[in-house]
Specification:
Length: about 425
């Protein structure tokens, strides 16, 4: 535990690099994401006391999720072979499987995950930008805030619906007829106080942590994808303005200064852009190394999950309050799927556009001396490298883009049609 704590802490030298205008006070999306990740217990800690609190929170998160797994697996076992009840429990089990997988993958790659957060903290969320770059970053923050707010609203609506369903059903009922949010198959007087109240609170606490774990990693991945795409967009702007002046002013400047000095100045700035491009590519590779298994499981499970949720809304004979659970669930899932695939698609597009931005630079005005030849040679290399865009893949099988979203929805619709036909028969 002590070794992990040392890995997660931000040392004094790192804290000294944090500017006074902390983006945590300005970026709402980052605030929401960090808040949910702190509830799970996987976020940066500034000192030993805070890290110990993170460790205890993480242990509590694992216990709460395992309690939910135990409740749902027993419910599925005792509900068999009633198809409607099993389909309802299967939705919950699939969500728990996704949560466990995400948590397991992050814990296995914990050091890489924390290194990714530290790099993002120091080089993306805390760095100096000029006016135009701040405009691009502000647009990215607005999109992130809207995306994460939509996902969280649907997730909170789902959890509230799970809690309100038994409360509404228990109104006017006798003590022996009360129900819990989830069926409990244990040899205890469940519906007698205080056992009922204790189990109700335990299930609600477990439910809340499952919902938080279900969305927090998706929020973080969407946030990081959008910021990575913005960094490539900023790089395009810097490559276009590598000469530090506009094209119209360039002719006047070249007539008054030595071309070789101007070429050296351009080449120095261009080398800085090359280093930034290399850093962005390595950042995306780290992102791919951590989340590739999560992305694959997300794509594979999502089609079946959407099918089962659609069954609960349109085909199952359930109460109105229970339908609200799955209305919020399917809405949030589709929004999450679209925003995730859209952010991945934006990352592919912006990393590919780096090669096109090179053509807008001032390289045609540079002389054919050693510096000019070296710059043109490096320009060719960056154009060739940008032809292989950065992307997130489903464990290397295929890149994730907007086409993945349509494929998942099409597969889910096919499953739902088969289930509907078998139910009508």
């Amino acid at each position: 535990m002590g070794k992990v704590s040392r890995e997660l802490k931000i040392n004094a030298s790192d804290r000294s690099k944090i500017p006074c205008n902390d983006p945590y006070e300005q970026d709402v999306s980052l605030l929401m994401t960090s808040f949910l990740m702190k509830i799970v217990g996987l976020w940066l800690a500034k000192d030993q006391v805070e890290q110990r609190r993170r460790d205890y929170t993480l242990i509590y998160t694992i216990i709460a999720i395992l309690f939910g797994v135990w409740v749902q697996t027993r419910d599925f076992y005792y509900s068999w072979p009633h198809f409607s009840d099993c389909a309802y429990t299967a939705c919950n089990i699939l969500c728990l499987i996704m949560v466990l997988l995400k948590l397991f993958v992050i814990l296995v790659n914990r050091k890489k995950f924390i290194d990714l957060l530290l790099y993002s903290y120091k080089h993306i969320w805390h760095t100096n930008y000029d006016f135009n770059e701040k405009v691009m970053l502000a647009n990215c923050k607005r999109i992130c805030t809207l995306s994460i707010a939509l996902i969280n609203c649907c997730a909170q609506g789902t959890s509230v619906s799970y809690i309100l369903t038994p409360i509404m059903a228990n109104i006017g009922q006798n003590q022996s007829d009360r129900i819990l949010p989830f069926n409990m198959w244990v040899d205890l007087p469940l519906y007698i106080s205080p056992y009922f109240e204790i189990l109700f609170v335990l299930q609600v606490l477990s439910l809340y942590h499952v919902v938080v774990c279900y969305v927090c990693f998706d929020n973080l991945l969407c946030l990081v994808n959008l910021h990575a795409a913005t960094q490539f967009r900023i790089l395009q702007y810097r490559l276009t303005n590598v000469g530090g002046t506009s094209t119209q002013q360039m002719d006047e400047e070249i007539s008054s200064v030595i071309l070789s000095d101007y070429a050296k100045k351009c080449y120095a700035r261009f080398k800085s852009c090359i280093r930034q491009h290399e850093a962005h590519i390595q950042y995306c590779n780290k992102l791919e190394g951590i989340f590739r298994i999560i992305v694959l499981a997300h794509i594979l499970i999502f089609s079946l999950l959407l099918c089962l949720v659609g069954y609960q809304i349109f085909l199952a004979d359930s109460s109105r309050t229970r339908r609200f659970i799955f209305i919020f669930h399917i809405t949030g899932s589709m929004i999450s799927l679209f925003l995730f695939t859209s952010s991945c698609d934006g990352l592919i597009e912006e990393s590919s556009n780096v090669g096109m931005a090179v053509y807008s630079g001032p390289w045609i005005y540079l002389p054919m001396n050693n510096t000019g030849k070296m710059l043109r040679k490096d320009l060719n290399m960056i154009i060739l490298r940008s032809r292989k865009p950065c992307c997130l893949t489903a464990c290397g099988f295929f890149p994730v883009s907007l086409e993945t979203c349509t494929s998942v929805l099409s597969t889910a619709m096919s499953y739902f049609t088969l289930m509907r036909q078998s139910t009508l028969k």
